[in-house]
Amino acid sequence: MRQQRRRPQLVAGLLLALAVLVGPSAVPSVAFVPSDGVRPGAVLAAADDATAPLPDPAVLTALLKKVSRSGIGTVGLVVTTTDGTVLADRGADTPLTPASTMKVLSTMTALDALGADRTFATRVLDSGSGRIVLVGGGDPLLTDKTSTSTYKTASLQKLAKATAAALKAAGRTKVSLRYDASLFSGPTWNPSWKSYWKGWEAKVAALEINSGKISGGRASANPAKTAATAFAKRLRAAGITVSSVASGTAVSGSAELARVTSTSLDRIIHRTLRQSDNVAAETLSRHAAIASGRAGSFSGAAANVKAWLTARGLWTSGLTLVDGSGLAPSNKLTATVLASAVRIALAEDEFAPIVDGFPVAGESGTLKSRFDDPSEKAGRHVVHAKTGTLSGLAALAGYVTTADGATLVFAEIGNKSSSYYRVYNWLDREAAVLARCGCR
Does residue 324 have a cis peptide bond before it, meaning omega lies within 30 degrees of 0? Predict the structure, then answer.
């Protein structure tokens, strides 16, 4: 059974002291685990002081209506307290395209299925007869060259070095290489995605490097083959002759020669949400599907997120899910569903990595350069939210600390616009209204 977050007096005292030291608008946003074990997400959730005055719904609704939505065809908006009391609602139950706010749901589903400490290994197996097999374990942050990023702990460079050492220790300097990406199934490209993205948007595979990209930022046509070719090059540089490279399947019971391991799932999620990493979200969604007994495919992953929403009482008629990243325009969610997921993330310790991963307005991730005009600046540093952007639409889902110290949960979606920049203005200005409340 999941434990609900407690809001001890000690945490409230710490928050009061913090407010005195750095001012009422400052909110901690750096992902870390303090020595007292209280993660930032838990501290932020505790900031919703029961004594903080809440906005008057009528006043808040009137102020939100003053924000221009000119040029935006359809909107959905909901603002609630952390216990779910609705303070403002405009089309909150209208199914709309959520874009990358979909990643809130796919990463929550993955965290629930896999656990925060889960890692993913890329292995090299010895299948005999002079053949080795590079087996993809679905590490979404695997690189070719060893990276200095703390998120990217596994590389083919490290793996080739360890593999060459193991082969040489056995007196072997020549191998044929096979690569196995069979952990995931189905197509690597979602048919609901725009076809003209294929040159730039990465395909989804259990074995891929550098987020599925090759030189010039272009997408690899065959991520697994690209990774295997790069690995063969690394082996040759380490003194191993590679006679051939081809697709294959690892034989059950093969001895392991070497492995490299990803960082933990909570760290992967942090980066996925901050940078809105599409291929990482899709990869994690497949892992969650497999862990839940479904196929590691687009359809299996989407069905798994639907099952998670259904179990939480959040699935309603009219919703549609076809991927885990939100790239598909045919995804349909409501502001109510997104806000409900944010409330769950704030309430339950298990989902602290989701809260920690939200970009912060004016500070980090996809919100670093947002909230940049005078009517939006109140939201800087106090709006924590996942963004979503596709052609002609955008969305924002998260939480904000008001000027009076209350935590409000919100979700906003704007579809059918001539420009997503126009939708950005509406999203950011509405969130800034919440930050300025008052509203009484």
Answer: no
